[in-house]
Amino acid sequence: MKLKSYPYNPIPKDEERVSAALEAIESSISICSDSGVRERLRDQRDELLAEQRALEIYGPIIESNVSNGYSPYWNLVSKSLREDHYWCCEKCGVNLRSFPHLLHVHHINRNRMNNSYKNLKVLCLLCHAEERGHKHLLAKVSDEEIQIVQAARDGKLDIADSYYATYLRKSRKEFDDDMLF
After folding, report:
1. How many Å apart are CA 48 and CA 26, to the nearest integer?
2. Measuring CA to CA, which residue among 49, 42, 45 is closest to residue 15?
3. Between 31 and 9, where is the model more confident?
4. Which of 30, 122, 137, 155 is deepest in the core (most CB within 10 A)?
5. Predicted local confidence at residue 128, as pLDDT
6. CB neighbours of 7 closer than 8 A, spacing ≥ 6?
């Protein structure tokens, strides 16, 4: 069962669409005899329940996520999952509560629209870059950000804080320089 993508569903109908889809999935689960299909239906149900919760809390669709290939509520899903993991990387265990932008949520099957919990893994920037097809992430970050994660991994948060302060100063200076005419 494939649901229509978000941009084509007006906001007032989203709640109705999710409720109808949940109802259909629940009845399909109850009559389906194939365990593999039932498992996929349960995954879809979990995604819809998360979407329903987001609709109740946040309402409008976030269009920018859709244009980037992510589900409309990706920012909310990502933040919620990172909070549930206490801002720690599932692979190396580093705590990045002070540097949340360096803690990512990885889609295991590389489908950005599949936000089932089985398909998501909380990873620090460095562990995420080690995943298949994600080396490009390192090209998008500064040396200071890499040093922050490494320092945090080594338990030297005071050093990480100083790296972060340096990074912020450089970023602000570049921003200020760009604003000059």
Report:
1. 11
2. 49
3. 31
4. 122
5. 95
6. 61, 63, 66
